[in-house]
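Whiteboard transcription, Tuesday session. T.W. wrote the structure tokens on the left side:
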């Protein structure tokens, strides 16, 4: 698990920052894929977690599944679907 990532209440977390157009696109993809599978997800507001935002400054938005970084900048819906469909380790 990523040390700076806040405790998850969902399998999928998306690190975002205000005013980020890529974040809005990534969020739409996450909503689509997670809703289709009944999977919970949550946005992690970088403004509320400055150390986390600083660590991933050049990669926002950043997608985490089960606490592991899986994508950044753009979320690939097929890849996210495969990750969610795979058995948990």
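and on the right, the sequence the group agreed on:
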């Amino acid at each position: 698990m990523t040390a700076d990532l806040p405790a998850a209440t969902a399998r999928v977390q998306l690190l975002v920052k205000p005013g980020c157009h890529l974040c809005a696109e990534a969020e739409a993809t996450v909503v689509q894929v997670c809703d289709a599978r009944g999977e919970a997800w949550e946005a992690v507001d970088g403004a509320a977690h400055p150390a986390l935002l600083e660590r991933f400054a050049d990669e926002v938005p950043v997608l985490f599944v089960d606490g592991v970084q899986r994508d950044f900048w753009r979320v690939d819906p097929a890849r996210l679907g495969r990750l969610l469909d795979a058995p948990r380790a």
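Someone added at the bottom: The two ends are 13 Å apart (CA to CA).
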